[in-house]
Amino acid sequence: MGHNYAKPLTSGQKMERLLTRIPPSWAIKMERVTGSATWRATVHAPEATEGAWSDAHQDPADALEDAWRRNRTVLA
Q: Superkingdom, according to UniProt (predicted)?
């Protein structure tokens, strides 16, 4: 019996995929939370002054994805 399971994306691959989806004109901010090994991020359109911050995540790509999901509704 063959197995055809998709390999999960690495953090770098996930970051690449996200950066191609976020419009180049949008601002991206990422920071490591002081005193912990977690990251948080925000993204926002040029006409917005600030976007919503993501929750804290161990992987910076997960933080960026969370921020993108919270703030992309501006495109709709």
A: Bacteria
For residue 29 the two structure tokens come to: 């901010």
In this structure, are strands 39-44 and 27-32 parallel, antiparallel, or unpaired? antiparallel
Q: Which pTM value belongs to this model?
A: 0.83
What is the distance between the alpha carbons of residues 59 and 28, in angstroms, rounded to a whole number?
16
Phi first, then psi: give them for residue 43, nearest 5 degrees: -135, 150
Residue written as token pair 């990422």:
30
CA dihedral 42, 45, 49, 50 (to 10 degrees): -10
* Closest to 67 (Cα-Cα) out of 21, 36, 7: 21
Q: Where are the alpha helices (H) located in 1-76, listed in sequence order?
A: 11-21, 60-71
Q: What are phi and psi of 34, to 5 degrees?
A: -60, 135
